[in-house]
From TrEMBL:
Belongs to the type IA topoisomerase family. Its EC number is 5.6.2.1. Residues 2-133 form the Toprim domain. It catalyses: ATP-independent breakage of single-stranded DNA, followed by passage and rejoining. Residues 152-589 form the Topo IA-type catalytic domain. This is DNA topoisomerase. It holds the Pfam family Toprim. It comes from Syntrophomonas wolfei subsp. wolfei (strain DSM 2245B / Goettingen). It comes from the Bacteria.
Length: 686
C-alpha cells in the first residue's frame, strides 16, 4: 500500500518526490515504492459562481440581491480540470491507503487540499506535512513526524470562513454598486477599508494649509544649542523669534545641566513577511508583490530561507540548536567575517529572538542550513537575501552601546539644548545599517554633534544666533511600506477605546494577502503608483462616497480577521461567524439600495466608441497594461489601448498624426484597415 502526497506546485512536488525516492514520472504525478506525489496546480477547486446556483444570476440585476446560498458549493476550475482528474483518479486507487497534505503550511494551503478532498469525497485517513523550509533535511524530518490531519481542522474552518465571507461580501457589494451606478465598481471586505485609508490621507493632504514657523540656533563656540520652549522648538510668531534673537545675541550663557548616560540599543527583531516587504520597499524601492515573488524563489528554488508567509518575528526553542549550522552554511563571501565571531563561542540568543509564545504557524524568516552559493542567485535575489542574512546576523550580535550627553544652556531665561554621542561598542550596527524606519528623522529631535567636556555652571559667550524659517508639512502620502504598516496596525485607527483594545493585533488581511490587495487596487484603477507614493484615482475617491460606511471602516474588517484567527485556534465557531457575515451582507446591500443621493461619474472616458454597442469606452488598467473597456456591463467588450484614438494612449503621438491626416475619427476608422495592410507590407519588405 502507498501514501498519496498532495503538494501545491509542480516544482515543490518534484523536490518532495526526489527526497522520497519517487522516480517514475507520469502525467500529473511521480510514483515511487512507497509514495505517489502529485500537485494542485492552479488550486483545482474553488467556490461555485452565482449562476451555478441559479442561471438567472448570470445577469446582474439589483433586484436579485443579496445572493445568499443556503450551502456554499464547490466547483472544479475549468482551466486546470485535467489535473483535478489526475488527482481524483489517484485518490480512488485501491493501493492508496492514506493522503499526506503537503500544500503550503498555512491557512490558504490547507484550504487548497481540503476543498479537493471534499470534491473527491475522500474518506480514508490523512496526515499533514508541516515544514518551515524546503531543504532535503527539512522534508525528511517532516515526513518522519507527520501530524494527524484532523489536528488542522480549525485552520481549515478559518480558511473556509474567509473564502465564503469574501464571496458573500465581495460579490454582493460589487454587484450592488455596479447595478446601482451602472459602472464597473468592485468592493471587498479588505480592499475597501484599505482604499479608505489611502483616500482619507489624500483628503487630509488636500485640506492641509501650511503654516510658517521658525527655529532658533545659538552658537556657543565649540558647540551649538537649539531653542526649546514648553511646546518644543517651533515658534509660529516671527516677532517672538526676533525678540528672542535680539535678547541673546552677544550675551553670556550659563550651562544649566550636563547629563551623560550610558545607553544601549537592542538589535532589531528578525523579519516576518510584512516587515521584510516594508524594508525592501524603503531600501530597494520594490513593491510588496515583487518582494514576495523573489522571496518565494529563495524559499522554493534555492532553499536558502525559511517559510515566507509568516507573521512572526521570533523563533522557537527547538530552532536554537540549529543556529550554528545555519551560520556555517551562510558564512561565506561578505558574511564570513560577520558569522565567524558568533561561531567562536556558544550561542545564547535571548528573548529578542527566541519566544515560543509569539510564534503561531511559522517562525521568523531566517536562513536555512542549505549551503549558500551566491553565484547561483541573480542580482535581485542576492539583494533580498542580503537583507535577510544581515538581519539574522544582527539579531545574534550584542546591543549597540554608546554614551549620550545632553547639555542645557540658558541665555536670558531661554533654554538651548545640545546632544552628543560617543560610541562604545558598535555591536549589531557593525552588521546591518539602522532599520529604515529609524532613518525617518523627527524634526523636533535634537541633532547629534561632537561635544567637548563641559561642566554645570560654566559660562560661555553667545557667538551668534540664527532664526531659520520653515513650513509645516502635510501628512505624507502612503508608500507601500507605510501602507503595510497601517494595514497591520489598523486597530490604532479605531476611535472606540474598548474596541481598539479588543482588536489589538488584528489587521486588514494577513501577511500572505496584503501584497495582492495593493496590486488589486492598482489593477482596478482605484489607486496609482507615482514613484514610491500610492495616490487614489478619481474612481477610488468616488467609491469611498458610494460604498457603505461599515465596509469603509477598518473596525468591521479587523473584527472579522480577529474572529477568523480565533476560529483557527479552535476558540471560535464557524457557524456563528458565517451567520454574522450573512446578516452583515444583507445590511450592506440594503444600504446601497436605499442610497438616493449618491452619483458616479467616470472621468477616464476615451474618444473611442465600442464597436459592439456604440458607447464611448473607458481607459483602464489591464494585467498587461492599459486597455479600453466598454462601460456597459452587458456588453463587456475590451481591446488594447493602442487602438484608442483619444490621444490618451501610449501611441497618442502617432494617433495625433493620424487624426491630423484625416478629417474625423469615422474617416480614420474607415481607412484603418488599409493603413495596417500598408504597414505590414512595408515590414515584409524589410
Amino acid at each position: 500500500m502507498k501514501s498519496l502526497v498532495l503538494a501545491e506546485k509542480p516544482s515543490v512536488a518534484r523536490e518532495i518526490a526526489r527526497v522520497l525516492q519517487c522516480s517514475k514520472k507520469s502525467k500529473g504525478y511521480i510514483e515511487g515504492p512507497r509514495y505517489v506525489v502529485t500537485w494542485a496546480l492552479g488550486h483545482l477547486v474553488t467556490l461555485a459562481e452565482p449562476d451555478d446556483y441559479d442561471k438567472r444570476l448570470k445577469q446582474w440585476r439589483i433586484e436579485d440581491l443579496p445572493m445568499l446560498p443556503e450551502k456554499m458549493k464547490l466547483k472544479v476550475i475549468k482551466q486546470t480540470s485535467h489535473q483535478f482528474q489526475v488527482v481524483k483518479e489517484l485518490m480512488k486507487r485501491n493501493d492508496i491507503e492514506e493522503l499526506v497534505i503537503a500544500t503550503d503550511a498555512g491557512r490558504e494551503g490547507e484550504l487548497v487540499a481540503r476543498w479537493i478532498m471534499e470534491m473527491v469525497r475522500w474518506r480514508k485517513p490523512f496526515k499533514r506535512l508541516w515544514i518551515s523550509s524546503q531543504t532535503d533535511n527539512a522534508i525528511r524530518e517532516g515526513f518522519a513526524r507527520l501530524q494527524p490531519g484532523t489536528q488542522y481542522n480549525s485552520l481549515y474552518a478559518a480558511a473556509a470562513c474567509r473564502a465564503e465571507a469574501d464571496w458573500l461580501i465581495g460579490l454582493n457589494v460589487t454587484r450592488s454598486l455596479s447595478c446601482k451606478f451602472n459602472a464597473q465598481l468592485n468592493a471587498g471586505r479588505v480592499q475597501t477599508p484599505t482604499l479608505a485609508m489611502i483616500v482619507k490621507r489624500e483628503k487630509e493632504i488636500k485640506a492641509f494649509v501650511p503654516r510658517d514657523y521658525w527655529t532658533i540656533r545659538a552658537d556657543f563656540g565649540d558647540y551649538y544649542g537649539d531653542w526649546r520652549g514648553k511646546d518644543g522648538g517651533r515658534i509660529f510668531d516671527y516677532a517672538r523669534a526676533e525678540e528672542i534673537l535680539s535678547r541673546i545675541k552677544g550675551r553670556m550663557a550659563a550651562i544649566k545641566e550636563v547629563k551623560t548616560e550610558a545607553r544601549s540599543e537592542a538589535p532589531p527583531l528578525a523579519y516576518d513577511l510584512t516587515e521584510l516587504q516594508r524594508e525592501a520597499n524603503r531600501r530597494l524601492g520594490w513593491s510588496a508583490q515583487k518582494t514576495l515573488s523573489i522571496l518565494q524563489e529563495l524559499y522554493e528554488v534555492h532553499k536558502l530561507v525559511t517559510y515566507p508567509r509568516t507573521d512572526s518575528r521570533y523563533i522557537t526553542d527547538d530552532i536554537v540548536p540549529t543556529l550554528p549550522l545555519r551560520l556555517k552554511s551562510m558564512g561565506v563571501g561578505p558574511y564570513a567575517d560577520l558569522a565567524h565571531p558568533l561561531l567562536q563561542k556558544p550561542l545564547k540568543p535571548g528573548k529578542r529572538l527566541v519566544d515560543n509564545s509569539k510564534v503561531s504557524d511559522h517562525h521568523a524568516i531566517i536562513p536555512t542550513e542549505q549551503p549558500l552559493q551566491l553565484k547561483s542567485l541573480n542580482e535581485e535575489e542576492r539583494r533580498l537575501y542580503d537583507l535577510i542574512a544581515r538581519r539574522f546576523l544582527a539579531v545574534l550580535y550584542p546591543p549597540y552601546r554608546y554614551e549620550q550627553t545632553t547639555i542645557i544652556t540658558v541665555v536670558e531665561g531661554e533654554n538651548f539644548h545640545s546632544r552628543g554621542k560617543v560610541e562604545i561598542d558598535r555591536g549589531w550596527r557593525a552588521v546591518q545599517a539602522v532599520p529604515s524606519d529609524k532613518d525617518e528623522k523627527d524634526e523636533e529631535q535634537l541633532p547629534e554633534q561632537t561635544l567637548a567636556r563641559h561642566k554645570k555652571g560654566e559660562t560661555l559667550e553667545v557667538k551668534s544666533g540664527k532664526a531659520s524659517k520653515h513650513k509645516t508639512k502635510a501628512p505624507a502620502r502612503y508608500t507601500e511600506a507605510t501602507l503595510l504598516t497601517a494595514m497591520e496596525n489598523c486597530g490604532k485607527l479605531v476611535e472606540d477605546k474598548k474596541l481598539r483594545e479588543s482588536i489589538k493585533g488584528s489587521g486588514l488581511g494577513t501577511p500572505a494577502t496584503r501584497a495582492e490587495i495593493i496590486e488589486k487596487l492598482i489593477r482596478t484603477s482605484y489607486i496609482e503608483r507615482q514613484r514610491k507614493e500610492l495616490v487614489p484615482t478619481s474612481k477610488g475617491i468616488q467609491l469611498m462616497d458610494l460604498a457603505p460606511p461599515d465596509l469603509r471602516s477598518p473596525e468591521l474588517t479587523a473584527q472579522w480577521e480577529q474572529r477568523l484567527a480565533e476560529i483557527a485556534r479552535g476558540q471560535g465557531k464557524r457557524l456563528d461567524f458565517m451567520a454574522d457575515i450573512r446578516r452583515d451582507t444583507v445590511q450592506l446591500v440594503q444600504n446601497i439600495k436605499s442610497d438616493s443621493s449618491s452619483t458616479y461619474r467616470a472621468d477616464n472616458v476615451s474618444k473611442s466608441k465600442c464597436p459592439q454597442c456604440g458607447r464611448f469606452m473607458l481607459l483602464v488598467n489591464g494585467r498587461k497594461g492599459k486597455i479600453l473597456a466598454c462601460p456597459e456591463r452587458s456588453c463587456g467588450y475590451r481591446q488594447p489601448e493602442a487602438e484608442d484614438f483619444s490621444g490618451k494612449g501610449g501611441n497618442s503621438r502617432a494617433n495625433r498624426r493620424l487624426m491630423a491626416k484625416y478629417s474625423n475619427q469615422e474617416e480614420l476608422e474607415t481607412n484603418l484597415g488599409e493603413l495596417l495592410k500598408a504597414a505590414l507590407a512595408k515590414k515584409e519588405q524589410g
